[in-house]
């Protein structure tokens, strides 16, 4: 089945994703689909659990354009040495059209693996550091609005509530499975990769 981007409050957005043990043809196909979805949606990053796969991998391109910028595929990323602070607006493909200010460290070190199994170790700052932190949060079940101040979040609370109401009413009418059934569907991935 083709992958698609799941909206908030799908329960997979809140799981702690599992480390990837091996890069195989299946993972390469997943990455290629994730990149297609990210560019189609005009996003700058997409984490695996946003396509309902609880795996520690995300794709990003701060330019949002396949022809430009730097395309990143980070496997089992880890973030260290946060420095400085910066507040800027963020959005999320799981909450289309909703934006809010988030304060984050300005500079970070990120270590990860790429699709060829090479280790990546880089210091990044500015917008790229923000994108990487946002996507890495997804792997830990954290959404950007969790990091917003109460005051800023108040401006988008109604929009978030609306998304939640739509999702819950689809569950109530049987259009979307229950949270319990959605999470049960993830088990196959745990067995494949852990
Ligand atoms: Zn996001």
Explain what this protein looks like in three dimensions.
With 194 residues, this protein is of the alpha+beta class. The protein contains 6 helices and 7 strands; from the N terminus they run H-E-E-E-E-E-E-E-H-H-H-H-H. It has helices spanning 25-40, 126-139, 150-154, 157-172, 179-184, 187-193; strands at residues 45-47, 57-60, 72-83, 86-92, 95-104, 107-113, 119-125. The protein starts with 24 loop residues before the first helix and ends with a helix. The model has no long low-confidence stretch (mean pLDDT 95). The chain binds zinc ion. Zinc ion binds next to helix 2.
Would you summarize the structure shown here?
The chain has 194 residues and is an alpha+beta fold.
Kindly give the count of domains.
1
Question: Would you identify the CATH architecture?
Answer: Alpha-Beta Complex
At CATH level 3, the topology is Peptide Deformylase
Termini separation comes to 22 Å
Report the top-level CATH class: Alpha Beta
Write the layout of secondary structure elements.
Elements: H1 25-40, E1 45-47, E2 57-60, E3 72-83, E4 86-92, E5 95-104, E6 107-113, E7 119-125, H2 126-139, H3 150-154, H4 157-172, H5 179-184, H6 187-193
The structure holds zinc ion.
List keywords for this structure.
194 residues; alpha+beta; five-stranded antiparallel β-sheet; 7 strands; globular; binds zinc ion
